[in-house]
Amino acid sequence: MALDEAALDALFRNARTHSTFSDTPVSDEELKALYELTKLGPTSANCSPARFLFIRTEEGKKTLRPCLSGGNIEPVMAAPVTVVVAFDPHFYMKLPELYPDADVKPWFSGNPDLAEETSMRNSSLQGAYFLMAARAMGFATGAMSGFDKVKLDRAFFGQNGWKSNFLINLGRPKPDETLPPRLPRLPFDEAAEFA
Length: 195
Known about the structure:
Pfam families: Nitroreductase. 42% of the residues lie in helices and 14% in strands.
């Protein structure tokens, strides 16, 4: 079943990157619901390497602040939640339960380069699924790079060994926010080919 025009508008055409948000908090239940939608998106061999850290306390933001590039500090500090989309470099340890039809764990356990490439690619996919799930649930999002990965990973992932990929600021849109026009996108003939 194809989505109607209103849904396509909400997910794509009218959606923008937000840098400010309303002060309304995002609840645990809402974050869990976002994850429940996100986890349904496909990944190669169902590897599901993405891990999500939801930073929303004053202490968490204080720890995150020195990891950020200067231009990202203000939007991150003001967002109700900053999501660190990360990945578990040892995601393949979960493959026996996630992909029980075949023994694919050795594909990755003996090949760290393939494991790194797979976890980065698929956690990026899962981060995009998270963005779309958030838009579908009426949240405003602002994805960003612009942080020191080594510093962030040391600050937050010293115990579990996860590695950061990118950040997403998350909250409810400000009712009076005026968003800038969409920046240009490449036309089809500059970005796609038929073969």
